[in-house]
Design brief:
heterodimer, A: 25% helix, 29% strand, B: three-stranded antiparallel sheet, 10 strands
Chain lengths: 808, 340
């Protein structure tokens, strides 16, 4: 909200600069985001055009004779504006004048004719074009007839004002009314508050022959006050009022509309004025619209309504969308003589919905949405009536119609004043607490420590004791609260095991040379096509977002692969060709009743390797492959103290190379997959090189974080290392051979290392030679050569039996 | 015999002195001291000596042998030293050559910041909790005292899954979950890091970002305690010279509520571009847990009070590392990631 310092000073004598006031308000909870100081403007005065001549050498220049000081000779100024007329009062930039944009105006000649200054447009005086009268938009700005010739035009236009931009929190919506900011300032600075004049009606009626008001939707309209005013003369508003409206970003229109806007800004209450002659009867009826009912609003757009929208009607036709915008058929015209002013309170969420549906976010609607007391409307109506008479616009009727089905009760909050110190950790005295309430105009009845605090109607945010504690904290400022540490009570809390696992893995993967990435939890459903997933693949069971920002972020991820693959593509496109990435994050698994039951969130790990380490003087080129990835996982499992993880051939995973993929199995469950990305998928993603990925479900491993390794003492004997080379059919998987060796060998085989695989000369086609190094070790004895020989025999027999293997 | 010995000693020492190669020394060693060497030859003559002469001659022989051996060893040592020195010179490398690549890995800057925050609060006895990223409206709003008409509950600002379910818009629902699981027991002392989601996407907003929530509920917890904890945090996170400032604000689930500023780390509080000349930088929101929130999660506000705070991890990372565009954090360009 924009707050004019000049306007504020009408109600409270502020003797602070804009910046000082901004700081004070900010520290009291009314955050000031910006302070706009006045523009530097010099020597622009109000002048009157006495005479206009055409410039002989120009078809558009006019030579004006301008009176800039009574009793002095007029000066000659050449202008290019076409809207000037004799008798017009205008801003005149004199010789030496400085405009807001820094331009200095100098005396000079225009096509040979002397010009002693410049007539100014609104834009040249830094007035937003949207805030100008229509007739002032193209050309020189015109003033009212009573503008004082020779006076400072900048001051007359209120351009000497300082504007504060407030960023109000939703609880302090009352401060969208300048009078309530003034109350706050008066309380904080200890100053007196000067309230604006009100014109109370002599009679408050429920009905009258000249005006009948009824509410057919009392759940959405809590109060409706109607008051007539007569003998209206529509014209421009006085300059001070125009200035205040502009300071708040509101365009002046005519005196009646301006008054409704002025009161809206001053007291926070939206008002509406109808031309009484344009209503079909002396009647106002508030009801819900019918589906499809139509109305032209003041902005000349036809609106189609529905039955959730509240409508103001004159008994037969719609005359306004309640609280949002008036109708074109009943607005104030130049010739309006009699008006009905509306000061009503509507249901905030109803207004919010209507404004949203119609895309019509008017000042009125925004005030209603934030919430208002029904008491405000009474005062606001009296303020409008006072202004109509003060400004000699017309006569306000001495009676008004007040349709007020349920009178608002004054809020009284009970509080033990000690609560303030208990919550804040302060040691305020009772007097200090009472002082705050007094300054804020809260009434207090004391009963020992218990206070019954009466809350003024405009503070709708205060409903319970803690709200009063906040007032105390705010009033004295948070700087006045001491800084302490909580008294230490013993707790033995620890990190959630999933967090521990995550921490541990991230550290070990970073240490292993991988880069952690973080990608969005939502993905594009089309990723599944890129991964060639079958129509019934489980990963396609995703949770869609009802209102995504885009299709790319349409569904919650069921796998981390799309994110990591897309990251790889982005990097490859930037020529980052050696990629070692990982991500740990949650994937989402649809629950049975997914509309009401939370999905399962499972912690996953994804890794991606691609590219190579280039040849250097010291090392040959090293390309990553399947076994780099597998090694990485063995390292992970070793770090987690998990043994018994096995890798099984995986040939039917659509996004992995059918000959270069494996399932990762732990305790009989498949917990992950790893392999080379399928060539089709490489192409679908536009990956420019071979890429290896793995994804692991960490959920099954979370409990492993508690595994404590038990130490065993070291053997006293040295192990004996023996080699064994066997020849066997080449379809036999290494994993099977290894399992079979281990099984036949028994407990004394301490290490098994495959050091060579050979096919070619000397080996029959269709066969391969595998050379193993076996280390034999017993904790209790030195194994003899014969024993080891026996073991080898046993292994060979087993291999021969299972795979037709022969010793090479 | 004595003469023989004297002669041998003399010639041996001479020859040894002359020897200028390791092989010569080895040969001399055999020639002089070996089984068939000259000294042994002389010793063989001992038998011909008179009984009484033998000990005298024996010690003389030993003396000569020791002398030869000593010189021999010394010469050997010298040769070895010289040889080693030569070898070391030959083995010299250019230590400024590039190293053998050991792949270096990096944690994401967001993780690094979260780890730091966890460490700071773990040191103060806070547990680390977590909650679901897809959350029930009930936890995300209802239990946090956020009324139905609050703008945050609009489709406009939050990602919805269904009427009752949405992507959590803050980590605050973990507060309610933790309180419920504690079943009224005191103290409740946790932080909860995690991903949160809002419908915004530009240079300063990301539809997904990270927050860390903090909650401490016990008997006699005050706003003064909140100030203390946050001052400690600010100093550990941003440097010992940092100060904090609390500005009154509004959150539905805390009251009183405060925005917390820290003195600008770039200018120290005198005003600069980073702090927009104010000397202060906003880093988190906080407040005393609202009595309604306590009540709804099974705590009696007459007996327990507490505070809560929440901070944006991206914002802290951007401030701490001088990152100007939030999108860099989710682009995951390895050239960016390897800066941390």
């Amino acid at each position: 909200m924009l707050l004019s310092l000049n306007w504020l000073k009408k109600y409270v004598n502020v003797n602070l600069t804009g910046d000082e006031l901004a700081k004070r308000l900010t520290m009291a909870g009314l955050a000031v985001d910006n302070v706009y100081p006045p523009h530097k403007i010099e020597n622009i005065i109000i002048g009157k055009i006495l005479n206009i001549k055409k410039h002989e050498d120009s078809d558009h220049l006019l030579i004006c004779s301008v009176l800039v000081q009574e009793a002095l000779a007029p000066i000659q100024i050449v202008t290019g504006a076409s809207n000037v007329y004799e008798g017009m009062l205008v801003p005149v930039a004199m010789h030496g004048a400085i405009l807001p944009d820094g331009t200095i105006i100098k005396r000079g000649k225009l096509r040979g004719v002397e010009s002693n200054g410049m007539l100014c447009s609104g834009r040249e005086l830094a007035i937003d074009e949207a805030l100008l009268y229509d007739e002032d938009k193209d050309g020189i700005m015109g003033f009212l007839e009573d503008a004082p010739i020779g006076a400072d035009a900048a001051k007359y236009l209120g351009l000497d004002d300082t504007i504060l931009e407030l960023d109000l929190t939703p609880n302090r919506a009352d401060c969208y009314a300048i009078i309530n900011v003034a109350r706050e300032v008066a309380a904080l600075l200890g100053k007196e508050l000067m309230l604006p004049t009100l014109l109370e009606p002599k009679q408050v009626l429920t009905t009258h022959k000249d005006l009948k008001v009824s509410i057919a939707a009392p759940a959405l309209c809590y109060r409706y006050i109607g008051r007539k005013a007569e003998n209206i003369v529509i014209k421009r508003s006085p300059q001070w009022l125009v200035n205040f409206l502009r300071s708040a970003g509101i365009r002046p229109i005519n005196n009646i509309v301006d008054i409704t806007n002025f009161v809206l800004l001053e007291m926070g209450q939206p008002l509406h004025a109808f031309d009484a002659k344009l209503l079909s009867g002396a009647e106002i009826l508030v009801r819900c619209a019918k589906n499809g009912e139509k109305i032209f609003t003041l902005d000349e757009i036809e609106r189609s309504l529905d039955e959730e929208m509240l409508l103001i009607t004159d008994g037969s036709k719609a005359i306004a969308v309640a609280g949002v915008m008036g109708g074109l058929n009943s607005g104030i015209q130049a010739e309006t003589k009699e008006i009905i002013i509306e000061a009503a309170i509507f249901d905030r969420s109803s207004i919010r919905k209507t404004a949203r549906k119609l895309g019509l976010h008017s000042e009125a609607a925004s005030r209603y949405e934030k919430g208002l007391s029904t008491v405000t409307s009474y005062h606001a109506m009296n303020r409008a009536a006072a202004l109509i008479e003060e400004l000699n616009i017309g006569i306000a009727c001495s009676w008004e119609i007040d349709c007020y089905p349920q009178t608002e009760q004054k809020t009284v909050v009970t509080i033990d004043w000690n609560l303030a110190n208990r919550v804040l950790g302060t040691s305020f005295t009772k007097a200090e607490v009472l002082h705050v309430f007094a300054r804020l105009s809260f009434t207090v009845e004391e009963q020992g420590d218990i206070l019954s605090v009466g809350i003024p109607y405009y503070r709708i945010d205060i409903t319970e004791a803690i709200d009063l504690v906040e007032e105390v904290a705010r009033f004295y400022g948070f700087d006045a609260i001491p800084t302490t540490l909580p008294s230490g009570k013993f707790t033995s809390e620890e990190e959630a095991p999933s967090q521990k696992l995550e921490d541990k893995l991230k550290s070990s993967l970073a240490a292993a040379g991988l880069y952690e990435i973080i990608t969005y939890s939502f993905i594009n459903e089309k990723s599944f096509d890129k991964l060639q997933l079958a129509a019934d693949d489980g990963l396609r069971q995703v949770i869609p977002i009802a209102n995504p920002l885009s299709e790319e972020q349409g569904v919650m991820r069921s796998t981390l692969l799309p994110g990591i693959l897309e990251t790889a593509v982005r990097n490859l496109n930037k020529r980052n060709l050696n990629l070692r990435l990982f991500e740990i994050g949650r994937v989402f698994e649809v629950a049975a009743a997914y509309e009401s039951q939370l999905p399962n969130e499972r912690l996953h790990l994804a890794c991606l390797l691609s590219g190579k380490q280039l040849k250097t003087w010291a090392q040959n080129e090293q390309e990553v492959d399947f076994f780099t990835m597998k090694g990485l996982f063995e390292q992970i499992f070793a770090g987690l103290k998990l043994s018994g993880v096995i890798y099984q051939e995986l040939t039917d995973c659509t996004y992995l190379h059918p000959g270069r993929a494996a399932n990762i199995c732990y305790q009989g469950t498949i917990i992950g997959k790893l392999g080379e990305v399928h060539p089709n998928v490489v192409e679908n993603y536009g990956l420019s090189q071979k890429t290896y990925v793995a994804e692991l479900d960490l959920q099954e491993l979370i409990s492993s974080i508690n595994i404590v390794p038990l130490a065993t003492s070291l053997p006293r004997f040295q192990g004996a290392e023996r080699d064994m080379a066997i020849v066997l059919p080449d379809y036999v998987a290494a994993g099977e051979v290894e399992a079979s060796i281990k099984q036949a060998a028994g407990e004394y085989l301490s290490k098994l290392r495959l050091f060579d695989i050979y096919q070619g000369k000397g080996i029959e086609p269709g066969f391969k030679s595998m050379a193993y190094s076996l280390t034999w070790l017993s904790a209790s004895e030195q194994l003899t050569e014969e024993t080891i020989k026996e073991f080898h025999e046993k292994i060979l027999n087993e291999l021969a039996k299972q795979f037709k293997a022969k010793l090479r | 015999m004595r003469e023989q010995l004297t002669e041998l000693r003399k010639s041996a020492l001479e020859q040894l002195q002359k020897a200028n190669q390791l092989e010569m020394l080895n040969e001399l060693k055999i020639q002089l001291l070996g089984k068939k060497g000259e000294l042994t030859q002389i010793l063989r003559g001992m038998g011909k000596l008179a009984q009484e002469e033998r000990p005298l001659m024996g010690s003389l022989v030993n003396e000569v042998r020791d002398e030869i051996e000593a010189l021999l060893n010394k010469k050997m040592e010298d040769f070895q030293q010289a040889q080693l020195a030569q070898q070391l010179v030959k083995e010299k490398i250019d230590v400024t050559l590039p190293s053998k690549d050991i792949e270096k890995g990096y944690k994401h800057p967001i993780t690094i910041i979260i780890d730091e925050i966890k460490e700071i609060f773990a040191g103060m006895g806070f547990a680390v909790a977590e909650g679901p990223e897809i959350e029930l409206d009930y936890y995300n709003f209802e239990l946090l005292n956020i009324p139905k008409e609050h703008p945050a509950r609009d489709m406009q600002d939050s990602f919805y899954i269904s009427k009752e379910m949405l992507l959590r818009t803050h980590t605050s629902p973990v507060q309610a979950r933790v309180m419920q699981s504690k079943n009224g027991k005191l103290p409740v002392k946790v932080i909860a890091p995690g991903k949160v989601f809002r419908r915004d996407d530009d240079a300063t907003h990301s539809p997904m970002f990270h927050q860390v929530e903090g909650l401490l509920i016990d008997e006699n917890i005050t706003l003064a305690d909140l100030k203390g904890i946050l001052l400690l945090f600010a100093k550990r996170m941003f440097g010992a010279e940092r100060e904090i400032r609390l500005r009154p604000s509004f959150f539905p689930f805390t009251e009183p509520s405060a925005e917390v500023d820290i003195s600008c780390m770039a200018c120290g509080g005198t005003g600069c571009r980073l702090c927009k000349q104010t000397g202060w930088i906003e880093v988190l929101g906080s407040g005393m847990v609202h009595p309604n929130v306590l009540r709804m999660s099974g705590y009696d506000p007459e007996k327990a009070t507490g505070f809560a705070f929440g901070m944006g991890v991206e914002r802290i990372a951007m401030l701490k590392y001088g990152i100007e565009d939030m999108r860099l954090l989710f682009d995951n360009d390895v050239r960016f990631l390897q800066q941390f």
